[in-house]
Every structure is written in C-alpha cells, then in structure tokens.
Design goal:
- The complex is a heterodimer of chains A (225) and B (217).
- Chain A is built from 5 helices and 12 strands.
- Chain A is α/β, with parallel strands linked by helices and 225 residues long.
- Chain A has a 6-stranded mixed β-sheet, with helices on one face. In chain A, strands 7-8-9-10-11-12 form a 6-stranded mixed β-sheet.
- In chain A, α2 links the parallel β4 and β5.
- Chain A starts with a strand and ends with a helix.
- Chain B folds into 2 domains: 113 residues, Rhodanese-like domain (Oxidized Rhodanese, domain 1), CATH 3.40.250; 95 residues, 3-Layer(aba) Sandwich (Oxidized Rhodanese, domain 1), CATH 3.40.250.
- In chain B, the strands form 3 sheets. In chain B, strands 7-11-10-8-9 form a 5-stranded parallel β-sheet. A 4-stranded parallel β-sheet of chain B has the order 3-1-4-5.
- In chain B, β4, α5 and β5 form a beta-alpha-beta unit.
- The mean pLDDT of chain B is 94.
- The chains are: A alpha/beta (225), B alpha/beta (217).
- Chains A and B meet through α2 of A and α1, α4, α5 and α8 of B.
Chain lengths: 225, 217
Amino acid sequence: MILEKIKTPGLSHLSYIVGSGGKAAVIDPRRDCEIYVEKARAEGLTITHILETHRNEDLVSGSPVLAEWTGATVLHGPNAGGDVAFAKTAREGDTVEIGQLKIEVLETPGHTDDSLSFVLHDTAYPDGPVGVFTGDALFVGDVGRTDFYPDRAREVAGALYDSLQKLLELGDQTLLYPAHGAGSVCGSGMAEREFSTIGHERRNNPRLQIKSRDEFIEAKLAEVH
Amino acid sequence: MERLNVEGGNAPPRVMRPRMLSLKQLEDCGADHLIDVREPGAWCAAHLLGSYCIPVSMIPAFAGWFVGEGESVALVAADEDALETAKTHLARIGLDNIVGAYTGVIPAAAQGRDLGQVPMIKTQEVKRRIEAADNGWTLIDVRAADEREQAKIDGSTHIYAGHLNEKWQDLDPLASYTLMCASGMRATVAASWLSSKGFANVDVYLGSMGAWNANQG
C-alpha cells in the first residue's frame, strides 16, 4: 500500500497517488503525467481512478491525459460550471475501491461549487477514516478562498462553513491531504508544514476557531485577495 | 485554463527544451511575447528591447496574467537549463506556444544592438521624490491587497501586478512611474511590462516595502 504526495514547485500544487491491491487512484494530477504512471508501474499498480477535487483555475489538469494513457475513470463534482467532458460526475456517498482502501465522496462546496473531498478508509481497520483529500476546502493553517462568486459571496462562504463541519466530523484521527501548500495563490495563511490531521487543524487552524456560521461568513467577506 | 479544465487539455509536448534561436532569428520570430526569465537585476541592467521580465521561479504565478491562451512566446534566459524549467512551468499552466529561445544578452550588445535599461532606485530617492510631491511621478504598489493592508507607503497607488495586464492602458506613457512590491521582484515584472508597452520613464524600488520598513526609526 502506498500514499505519495507529488508536489509541483511554483504552483505549490499537491497531487497524490494512493494504491493498494494492484490498483491506484491519482488525486488532482498535473498536466505532465509521466510521474504518476512511472510511480504506479514501479509499485506494480494500475491506475484505475483519477479523482478531481475541483476545477482548477491556476493550473491545467492532467486528468484527460492520464485517463487516455491508462483508461482510468475520472470523477469530478457536480456544478462544475460546464460539463467536464473527460469526467463522470461523482456525488456524495459514491465510493471507489482501491484494493483494501475505500474512497468515499464527500461534497464540500464553498471554494467552488463543484468541490469534492475524498475520504479514505482502510477496510482492514474500519473504525473511522484514516485520511481525507480536501482539495481547496481545507488547507494546513487556512481554508479555501470564497471570493470567486462575488454575487454570491455570503452564500458560498456559508457553504464552505458547512463543508468544514462535515470535514471536522470525520474525526481527529483523520490525516489531511490538501491540494495546495504554502506559496500558493489559493491562500496566503497556509502553514509551511504540509502534514496535519483534522484534530490538529481543529485546535490550531485560525479559521476553525471561529465558532459561529455568521461570524465565519463575516470573516470570509472581510478577506482581501 | 478554465476552458481546458472543462473540455480537457491535451498532453504537453514531450520535448521540454525550446528550440534555440540566433539573435537574428529571435528578432524575426514575430512572437506575441518576448519574456526574459533572468533575475530582476539582470533584466534591469540590460535587456533586449521589447522584452519583459518574469524570473523563472515566478512564471507559475505571473505568466498567466500576461500571456493569453494560444499566444506565442519567445524566451530569453541566462542559460539553457533555465529554459527547460521555464518551459515546464509554462506547460503546466497551458502555455505551449513557445516559438524559441535565446541566450546571450551581453553578446547582443557586442553585436551592436541597443539594449534597454531600467534603473533600480533606493529608499533615499523614493523619499526625496515623495517629499518633492512631483505631479508627474507616481509610486505604484503592485502587491496583493491583503499585503497592502498590513503596511503601505503613504502616497502610493495600488495596482496589483497581474492587473497591469489591462490597467497599463489607463496609465500615461509619458509620465514617470516607480514600481514597488515587498522586495522589488514583482515590481520588476511590473516595470518591465510597462517598459515593453513603451513606457520610457519607469524604475524599480529596490528592496521596496522591506527596505522602507528597515529605514524607519
């Protein structure tokens, strides 16, 4: 079983390959995809699924390329502002099996309407999720920007608050795998550290210390980017 | 990128190193953008006319502001290794139309080409200009709005570096501008962009907000 982070310098973009039982999933691949195929082959894994946490605007997705090379199924969230031609729409509760790992779709809109998180379960140790890929909903030390829909600023900030509550409910043991690290244009408050848990964020992430939904919305509306 | 991430982008070209051009070929290539990926100090000291500066490490964050989808780019670099990194960064944000690349800015001077220069000015000079309150001069702060909220220089005007892609048209090419950011890096990107658009009187505040703060008290 592997879970590896592939970092793209400059963009501070984090993608992941996770594999078990001869199968692998890639989360948010970048456009130069050789690295995923090479890593999978080195581990004797076949990439069967490509999971997109949201439609990025700061980099070109490698999903259609990787899908063409591997035949893997691409999953993308609903409400992407267009029909994502190379992907199937994934919904809350959909699951993907990667060997003994089970990946469950959680809809976590706010940063974008189509934002998904992917909850990672180890079926051999089923008491609570082991990790979660949060895309741009929750980072280490910050949360996603909500300034992309100016006409609906209050609504999407509230949506992000609700999504964060869903992520917190996964439990403190859950390892956190966001789509960006410090230096990204997608959040200026991110920690330099690129590893964390839901529990550590619950205690330390400044945005998760805000206890009421209304206060959270006000804080997000006051942000300038 | 938004379009590509709905319709699906294709695989980037496998050969990441751009085609090398002679100075003559570069001058005749007709690229929409001539981007110099050297360090800010190098660009300010001497650059090919019409070029603007995006240091190689700043390409992922800034090239997308200035280069539109499908537009052609020629690169200028200090060496060929920097070109490979530059082209990889450009491919990841969907900019593939790289017509070629050139190294050798100083040799271009030796071949009789007229090179451009943009001064880097220091805190004392910025203070002097603020105190002189010259109407023909503007200090433009190109940092992000949240950085400017922390601290700013009184009398400076805010235009985010990336937004100069359009907003340069609102500025007066005959007026004098000093560009500043947190250090002088983004200010050089901004100053070089204006220079490439025919602004003759631009310079860069070397050290920018950091130097300003260090000189207080």
